[in-house]
Amino acid sequence: MARSAKKTTVTAKKFSFPQARGDMLVIGIYKDTKKLPQSLTSLDKTADLVLSSLLKMGDFSGNANETALLYPPSQKPCKRILAIGLGERKSLSLNTLRQAAGTAARNAQKLKTPNIALALHTVIDSKIDLTELGQAVAEGAIIGRYNFEDYLPPQKDKNSPINNLRITVIDPLASAARKISAGCRIGTILANSQNISRIVDNKPGNEINPPSLARHARLLARQYSLQCKIYDDKQLTTMKMNGILAVGSGSANKPRLIMLKHQGRRANNKSIDAVIVGKAITFDSGGISIKPSANMEAMKFDKSGGCNVLGIMAAVAQLKLPLNVIGLIPSAENLPSHTSYRPGDIIRTYSGKTVEIQNTDAEGRMILCDALAYAAKMKPAAIIDMATLTGACVVALGEHHAGLFSNNSALQKQLEKASQRSGEPVWALPSGDEYLEQMKSKIADLKNISGREGGACTAAAFLGAFVEDVPWAHIDIAGTSDTEKEKSFRAVGATGFAVRLIVEYLNALK
Ligand code: BES
Ligand code: MN
Ligand code: ZN
Questions:
Q1: 465 C-alpha to center of ligand 3: Å?
Q2: 290: CB partners within 8 A, 6+ apart
Q3: Has 291 been annotated as catalytic?
Q4: Residue 25 pLDDT more than 70?
Q5: Whole-number percent of the chain with pLDDT over 90
Q6: Does position 122 have pLDDT exceeding 90, yes or no?
């Protein structure tokens, strides 16, 4: 299942400087630090002045995630000290610490040091809440540790690779260590859930298709005691989910609609707090409107939204949120063949609205419109969808921010707040009636593309036409869901972007 062989444990302990157990002690240093801060002077003395010499030599500027590995000659208080830059003191945030912890974990992996002590926060004199700090550090370490290695030979030397990395956040005060520990517990659940999404998302199209994704969902449901219902193509036909069926019609791997439920309220309480919908095109070739071949391999990540739903539901279950939450994953493979849907087709979607297909590569909205209409029928308090929906969103925002669209300003604000907490930035974009106007067809209720102008907004407006009056938000993760740029704090490939954001949003509802 979606589990990696490597385990990362993050806890906090009362431990006072300059002692430190483990193979490596990790500390943080701000940018342009000329003089060692008071909090590190006793450590420096114990460690044969390696820290003050580092600063004196001017080899270290303290830029965020810059590292210096130091070896105290007397091996005190431990063999290695890893200094990590924290950037400007005034711009320090939870995200700085999250990333620094990721950098520490990735360095520990490279150095094969299975036990590290983390004292990044010793130089912080500010208002950062210690529980939130513990959460961020655990998140960063566990996210940072993950690499996609499923298809590489296992490391041969039994003693050298580290399977279990133990990270201990140390603080001289027992009360502080307790608070940090509480945060570590939450952060561990959130980051492992994010990794669940990445583990499935990184798998290629020859392994993950709609039926196999559904099997993954069923296993996950069993593991975390979620209810699970899978609709296969026959049932989708009976239900008239013709959008999902049309997109899936070109592939021998038939489409599925996957439903997961967490019943956190009392058994007789059927109200639904949120339906979380995720696009899962297990491979997007474009279909008959086929894509150019350059970079087409990245279209295995067109299932990111659906994979995120798996991670989110795992987190919701483990956190035992006192809410009723449904995860909905429409899944299809978009391939060209003699059975594919075609440009010119008119599809009567689940909602009853007809859609003229002008481009089979605008398939995400065709599976989502059925799932969203189905979600709206449940009359939930909110619907949130995540989708790698448009290249236009990537052009607009690049890979740092996801696009946020909503028909409800309160919901939009809640998500923006959650995004600030999770450190997964979103940028609000419009999707009002003027954009929907561009999606009207002459021969059907809607068409599935308009011009190039405002492509992310028109796509969002199309989706918004299927949720009736339910508060709804759409997160276009096309730019953020995967990356080719390795960072010191995380690997290339699937990012699991928005898993923690949505869990933060749900957690704030309770
Ligand atoms: N999955 C793609 C969007 C995408 C593009 C995701 C780049 C990640 C990176 C989506 O199905 C798609 O093909 N969209 C088309 C829509 C167009 C035909 C209106 C696009 O953006 O080009
Ligand atoms: Mn497409
Ligand atoms: Zn797509």
A1: 19
A2: 336, 361
A3: yes
A4: yes
A5: 94
A6: no
The residue behind tokens 């592939």 is 251
Placement of tokens 């307790």 in the chain: 178
Going from the C-alpha of 489 to that of each of 66, 104, 143, 187, 432, the distances in angstroms are: 11, 8, 8, 16, 38
pTM of the model: 0.97
Which residue type, as a one-letter code, is found at position 368? L
Q: Domain-by-domain residue ranges, the chain?
A: 3-198, 208-484
| Local structure of 346: helix, strand or coil | strand
Domain 208-484 indexed as CATH 3.40.630.10: yes
Q: Which atom of ligand 1 is nearest to the CA of 359?
A: 18
Which of the following is catalytic: 261, 365, 421, 447? Answer: 365
- Average pLDDT value for residue range 101-118: 96
Establish whether 112 is a catalytic residue: no
Is the pLDDT at 155 greater than 90? The verdict is no
Given a cut of 70, whether residue 334 has pLDDT beyond it is yes
Nearest Cα to Cα of residue 189 among 502, 508, 500, 487: 500
DSSP class of residue 489 equals T
Q: Above pLDDT 70, what percent of the chain?
A: 98
Domain 3-198 superfamily per CATH: Leucine Aminopeptidase, subunit E, domain 1 (3.40.220.10)
